Amino acid sequence: MRICFILNPTSGTNRTQDVPALLTRYATAAGATFEVRLTQHAGHAEALAWQAAQQGFRVVVAVGGDGTVNEVARGLLGTEAALGIVPRGSGNGLARHLRLPLDLPGAVARACAPTFQRIDVGRINGRPFFCTAGLGFDAHVSKMFAQAGTRGLKTYVKISLREYRRYRPTPVQITLNGEQLLDTHCYVLAFANAAQYGNNAYIAPQANIQDGLLDVCLIDQLPFTRALRVGVGLALGTLATSGAAVYHTSRHILVQSAAPLGFHVDGDYVTDATRFEVELTPLALEVAN
Ligand SMILES: Nc1ncnc2c1ncn2[C@@H]1O[C@H](COP(=O)(O)OP(=O)(O)OP(=O)(O)O)[C@@H](O)[C@H]1O
């Protein structure tokens, strides 16, 4: 079995580590036949992953954060290769959901001796996501986060608190499965394939990544007391029973917004739109875990 590691050299906080050398050391120790390839720019991992799959690599491993995982996974859709993950980001949502090792030696060892399973794949306005996508406040925060000079959890919390004071919900119409119509407001509307955003922040604790359904989490308003309950619910995995959010499950969701709303895929801000089509393709990606 041949394994291709695709490394985003800009990911992770520890820049002093020689990651290619460590990958080589741990993969050699595991007796693997492998190659390490480095991305040269944002978006490059998708093309590298697709190319590796065409070259017959059985497992293509994203070495980076959720952005790199999204790119590699996108490149593997419709191919014969499985996605592996060596997590090096701050959130690592999909790796945590799949209960993959978070340390470098452990994750490399797992990627070299995996079991295989298939997972569902979401799409929002045509963009694939594997963990979560969403509209509203969380997307707005990802946009601000991308523009901030620094990264990490501290910056994220700081931006969230600052923007919370300014952000207002937008009127939206949500259609679930072509039937159920909700006339409501969007503070946060999250589409969860996996249970968490990353960092063990559980937006949809019940989400099952193989059930052919997205868990749709709606927070229509966020006054201060509810914000506290949402914060505690995210951290403890109790949001679904806290009463602070409403949940639905659906395979196909349409959202019409009264004003442009930002959306994110797997934590990365994409753009603003007023119409959103969200779909799920059951078991469309093989993962190595
Ligand atoms: N060689 C590169 N140079 C610049 N940017 C890159 C390169 N390779 C990948 N990227 C971009 O870097 C972005 C961030 O990467 P990624 O999410 O993997 O790491 P991270 O930001 O450290 O993780 P996290 O988001 O969990 O904190 C990705 O969106 C990707 O497109």
Give the mean pLDDT: 95
Largest sheet descriptor:
10 strands, antiparallel
* Strand and helix order: EHEHEHEHHEEEHHEEEEHHEEE
Q: Regarding CATH, which class of the largest domain?
A: Mainly Beta
Q: Please state roughly what percent of the residues sit in beta strands, choosing from under 5%, 5-15%, 15-25%, 25-35%, 35-45% or over 45%.
A: 35-45%
Tell me the count of domains.
2
N-to-C terminal Cα separation, in Å? Answer: 15 Å
Q: How does the helix and strand content classify structurally? A: alpha+beta
Small molecules bound in the structure, each named once: adenosine-5'-triphosphate
Oligomer: single chain
Low-pLDDT stretches are: none
By CATH, the topology of the largest domain is Tumour Suppressor Smad4
Shape designation: globular
- Count of β-strands: 14
Can you tag this structure with a few keywords?
Rossmann fold, binds adenosine-5'-triphosphate, Diacylglycerol_kinase_cat_dom, alpha+beta, single chain, 9 helices, 289 residues, Tumour Suppressor Smad4, Lipid kinase, YegS/Rv2252/BmrU family
